[in-house]
Design a protein that fits this description.
heterodimer; A: elongated
Chain lengths: 339, 309
Amino acid sequence: MNRELEEIPKERFEPAPQDHAASEKLEKPQLSFAKDAWLRVRKNKAAIVSLVILGLVVLMAIIGPHLTGHDGYEQDVTRNNLPPRVPVLENMGIFDGTQKIGGEEVNKYEQMNIDEYYWFGTDSLGRDLFTRVWLGTRVSLYIAVLAAVIDMLIGVIYGLISGFKGGRVDNVMQRILEIMSGIPNLIVVILMLLILKPGIMSITIAMVITGWIGMARVVRGQVLKLKDQEYILASRTLGAKNNRLLFKHLLPNLSGVIIINTMFTIPSAIFFEAFLSFIGIGLQAPEASLGTLIEDGYKTFQFLPHLMIIPCILICVILIVCNLIGDGLRDAFDPKMRD
Amino acid sequence: MARYITKRIIYLIITLFIIASVTFFLMKFLPGTPFQNQERLTIEQQEILNAKYGLDQPIPVQYMNYMLNIVKGDLGVSFQFENQPVMDLLMNRIGPSLQLGVQAMIIGTIVGIALGVLAAMFQNTWIDYGSTFLAILGKSIPSFVLAALLQYYIGVKLGWLPVASWNGFSSSIMPTIALACFPIATAARFMRTELIEVFGSDYITLAKAKGNSRMEVAVKHAIRNALIPLITVLGPMAVGLMTGSMVVEKVFAVPGIGEQFVKSIMTNDFPIIMGTTLFFAFLLTVIILIIDILYGIIDPRIRLTGGDK
């Protein structure tokens, strides 16, 4: 027996990890989280189309105000209330600058010898609507993104701490949340805007005050679910500190819900800004946002409907594509939908 | 259950207390005064007015009075409308708002459920896509945009319905449609997801195996079970209706609470702003409480986890 054992060659006692690793080797390159999500979103045609449209809207918000050469703030009362007039299209009988005044077709451009083209017409102060619409889009998008990012930061931090610490800290933080979420956010926003000076910052602040609660809840729920999983335990056993656990292990796994939630915050923030402007406590003139443009247009919509309808269409398009992208992302990140 | 309800009611009281206090102190920071033409009033006249409305007392005293009055159901007197108690103003205007809200809620849930059921039964057909698209539209288009467009096309251009007035049922049709959009979208989306999940469960397979037709399975087994969780979206719906009511009432000149609220913001009428805020907050929190309790009674799982969901 003893002799036989000694005869076994030494190589056979070599560790075998290399072979093992080779058999486990992945044939395809591993997908990163973002790539994985992208592959899934790509299947959703509505989301892709929406993404393209949103991209165009953002692009126009950046370059749109500079396209026509008209200034969005400069007032010229001699050129007020002009109807839309677009080159090329005017030859086809639409957008040729005619409008009905008292039942008669008149072309104000010809009457007043205006050679310039106002693609969307002008408002009651003679400002080019095309320029103002894109300026307004810029402001609306800016407010929405700012509010969404701040909501996200506060909500994620609150949710992480509450879920991860657990125990008494969680209890107290949850009670605070429960009471805060009982307060209708519309009321908080309106009250805040009454005392703050109307402007981009105050609208954002007013929306953020209650806006982060949804995010905090979702993040806490996810943390509670994830923190008892084996990979967290494994990492902890290997001596990982809390910070590492939070930022290296939990946060990446939360990114799906965070992105989805933020994507849905953006349209609701756009809506809220427009809503506030419409009831008269949003941005103040001469600042333009989609909400103030609709409000301005609404005042004269019986005679000059285009002043109201164009910003209305734009805000609807933005909200619809944001919701479609949000839906697409939710389907892509939702673990239940994984195939 | 009793413990759960007690806990919820205590939260409700704390929430309302905080809202009342915050409203009070915010109003004290507000710029501007509630009196018209203040420049023309002499100092003595201002003092008389201040004394009349109790604005000359120190703030803690004003706060105590305010809180005591709220408990008694007295929300103060409007600054703009001479000697009109806020409570009376609200009560005078609650009718139209309530009518619109209830109409929108009923139409919204019925149409929404129908759309959701159709979408789920014909999943991945054009019926499904159409209904889903409608739901997205309803969720995305702001109620005031819809209201303004309806008013222009149906009211002004076609002249089918009164543009902005409040007499009789016909003038409530357009505001109701504008308000119902959000409930329709919410109910349709919710019903669809819920039904698709139910259709995948074992008892549906059993019902099918027993030889029931598609229609029978859907009506007798699936829809009933999918309807229960629908109660949970009634809360968000109520919030949406309240938000919508302000702008929709403004657009269609409906003499409701929302319209009054928007007006009082413009005129700095503190007591009305405070009163309406409290009233809205009270209404919403109570509605949400009732919905949660109802759901707790129907679905025992909620009770066991203490409603922490």
